[in-house]
């Protein structure tokens, strides 16, 4: 069995590409990296890679991660800049013995030294939106939370190996150096080949309070289906956060298990893309679950 699932409609072309590779017995790691690379390179997605919206200083800072579900090896970057494919840098870091999670200038330096494609990630379109927002902000208070989405994906190869990865430019108008859940193990992503994998999107500051992706994989490991694990992880956590913290923002998750079954849960309207050996690639909409 092979399969892949990824957050948001923007992942669909990447899901198609990954599906082709997985059908031909491609590896889970190559498939998930190529899926995310497609999204990173597309200039009109405002929240990932090239064309991603900048922080409040006008700099595009990206977070990304890669995890190999066989070895549990992980690599991640936080606040990296001027790099076309942050997830590929994260994957390269996953092969290192030490220094697997690098941030800011250190992450960018690693990418430069290791021959990754460097480019100014701020497109004219993204710059114009930033300038417009700066003008609006001189009259009103800053809400950095409009305009953010992460591409997060899980892949299952015919060999039974699994991988997970994420990439995002984070919150529009975030503070310089702010890092969200996407590169943080167990929060934005997690995968364990004999069990399954999960990825999250939404407000990182909230997702990190619950290590939501790890929790989904843990629940699948107790025998829950991906759907039951997603429901329990998201809705129990959402209720807890409301009780204990007073409010909760966007949280959406996707998961796939080692059998290619999948699940999603969300507290906002949420699109995702999925394909498996038995289901043609499609974009679906998930609606908020129990309050
Ligand atoms: C972050 N989780 O940086 C990311 C952004 C996101 O839907 O996924 N928004 O907090």
TrEMBL record:
Gene3D superfamilies: (Glycosyl)asparaginase (3.60.20.30)
InterPro entries: Ntn_hydrolases_N (IPR029055), Peptidase_T2 (IPR000246)
Coiled-coil regions listed: none
CDD domains, per the entry: Glycosylasparaginase
Name of the protein in its database record: N(4)-(Beta-N-acetylglucosaminyl)-L-asparaginase
